[in-house]
Amino acid sequence: MADTATHRLAHVYPAGAGERQGLRAGVVSRTVAMVIDAAYVVMLVGVAYLAFSAFRFLRSPRKFSWPVISSGQFITAALILAAIALALGWAGVGRTAGMRIMGLRIVGRSGTTLGFTVALLRAITCVVFPIGLFWSAVSKHNASVQDLIFRTSVIYDWQARVPRSKRS
Amino acid sequence: MDRIPIGGTPPDPDDGEPDNVVRLPSVQASDEVVGIPVESHDAVAAPAGDEPEMSWEEAVAADADADVPEDPPPAVPGSGMATLLEQGLRVGAGMVSASASAMADALRSTMPEPAEEEGEDPAATMAGAGLGAAITAAEAAASAAKSAAEAVGPIMSWVTSPTALQGASGTAAGAARLLDGQWKATQAETAQAATAFLTVLIPEITKAILDQVDLTQIVKERVDINAIVEDVDMDRIVDRLDIGAIVDRVDVNAVVQKVDMEQIVEDLPLEKIVDRVDVNEIVERVDIRGVIDRLDLAEITQDVMDDIDLPSIIRESSGAMASETVQTVRVRGMDADGLVSKIVDRMLRRQQRELEAPGEPKDD
After folding, report:
1. Are A94 and B364 a contacting pair, CB within 8 Å?
2. Considering the domain boundaries, does residue B55 fall inside one?
3. Is residue B304 assigned to a domain?
4. How many other CB atoms are there within 10 angstroms of residue B97's CB atom?
């Protein structure tokens, strides 16, 4: 029965996608994922703004007024949230929200998930120097500047692999 | 000595028998004396009645002159004994001939080489000569006996006449009683000697015969074993058998160890056996409901769920089978990656990228 399910799942990839699983992803997919992550971070900043406003309202409802945030503060908060979100995603499940949508995964030099320190440092570099991503278009190994620094790889991984039996 | 009327029916005592007539106790009108038939009274004796008594010579003369009717010729006294003697001699000759023939065969079988090459078998010649001599002697003896009977006939008639018999009967009775007494005295001893002789002789003869006879071949040719077996009451035999004791004496383990089960199974025509099995009938006899009731379906289902890890399948298939839009975006991204790489590689005059990543993709 498990073999039948496996056989069925082995054909879920669209044509041409299956054989690319595990290969390093190109610049387009990674850029799309970054954009999605950026939007995700912006959304997080907005949620954080609303949460901060709610906190202020609950503390002094009569004196409540919407907090005024400068662009500098917003960008700083966004970058901080972005770094934290990226680090948590990479160190936790090996992918962020944008990478999950695009079917990407980040792995270390031995193919394992990154540790939190490496993930956080790589996230900071990505936030500070996002243009380093585009080196993957030129690199022979589709490696960005951050990949070269931290010896990481971003691969195609749609996570449609064969489920293994517990007894096998 | 009183005169005894010759022949004729003895006068009835009621008719007033003369006192001077003596009647032989053992001679009656229809009796025989020592195997000699008594002649017809009409043929031998003068008719009783008013005729005067006559002497022996007168009676013979009268008998010769008498007009005898066409009765069968009178049997010569002693002819029955001669017939018996002749038949006995013939039987004895036959036995002698058979014995001679068997002995000739036995002698021939003991010869180192068959005598056919010499033309005539001397053993057969000797046996034939002995047989011929025996038969000739038998015929001669029979003929002599008959002639003697014919010659002795008149004398025997005289001897058997009441006049002669009257004296001879007493002498014969005495001699018979004497011989009978002697026989009875020696009967037990004789029987014992004969029994001892036969006790020694019969086993030897039997052994010699069995050595020369192939009983197995005889049984095969002569005995209808099937008919015998059909008459055998097998049920009764089986009833008398103690099957339990027989089985107890059998070392079943040793027998089983000698059995080549693999060879037996290979020789079994399993396909033919299976073809003859009515599976539908078997299924109809099976209490499927009872089987199902005895099954722990909940446990079985849980085991199946554990084996196939259904939640993992659902999760991963949902990731793989994401919305068509997501799949389209991913595929488009892959294609765009490839296109950009080609353009850049062409600009950089690079043949192909090395996209193999370390390790394998990892689960969440």
Report:
1. yes
2. yes
3. yes
4. 17
Residue B307 touches chain A, beta carbons under 8 Å: yes
Structure tokens at B364: 């969440």
| pLDDT for res B49 | 45
Confidence class for position B53, pLDDT limits 50, 70, 90: low
CA A144, A146, A149 angle in degrees (round to 5)? 115
Query: B306 lies in which domain range?
Result: 297-348
| B100 φ, ψ (degrees, to nearest 5) | -65, -40
pLDDT 10s digits, B215-227: 888 888 888 888 8
- Which of B307, B330, B357 has the CB atom closest to A111's CB atom? B357
Distance separating alpha carbons of residues A53 and A61, to the nearest angstrom:
10
Count of Cβ atoms closer than 10 Å to residue B343 Cβ = 11
B257 vs B166, more confident: B257
Yes or no: say if A69 and A52 are a contact pair by the CB < 8 Å rule: no
Compute the nearest-CA separation of A41 from chain B (Å): 20
Contact B337 A159 (CB under 8 A): no
Residue pair B28/B46 in contact (Cβ under 8 Å)? The answer is no
CA distances from A152 to A94, A118, B84 (A): 11, 10, 142
